């Protein structure tokens, strides 16, 4: 059984007991959250597609931890001008574990 769910503006294909890294969500570590923006659910060959969302379908998850992603280096340079800019960025993520999918 799997579902396609919209979490923080991105669509993810999720299954039970799966770990995901999503953009930073509100909530403490260990808290349980529910997502009701379910677009599709597949259960043993039966596919239910919403238009655009499935009513009554809920994906429940648990927040495992909040963390930062890998550093991305942004380097700008203009040749022969002496212009150099070095900048770094680390994206904030939340690691969640999918507890269950219910229709």
UniProtKB/TrEMBL annotation:
Keywords annotated in UniProt: Ribonucleoprotein, Ribosomal protein, RNA-binding, rRNA-binding
GO molecular function, one term: structural constituent of ribosome
Entry-linked PROSITE patterns: RIBOSOMAL_L21
InterPro entries (UniProt xref): bL21-like, bL21-like_sf, Ribosomal_bL21, Ribosomal_bL21_CS
Organism superkingdom: Bacteria
Cited SUPFAM superfamilies: L21p-like
A GO term from the CC aspect: cytoplasm
GO biological process: translation
UniProt-listed HAMAP family: Ribosomal_bL21 (MF_01363)
Family note: Belongs to the bacterial ribosomal protein bL21 family.
Function: This protein binds to 23S rRNA in the presence of protein L20.
Subunit structure: Part of the 50S ribosomal subunit. Contacts protein L20.
Listed name of the protein: Large ribosomal subunit protein bL21
Gene for this chain: rplU
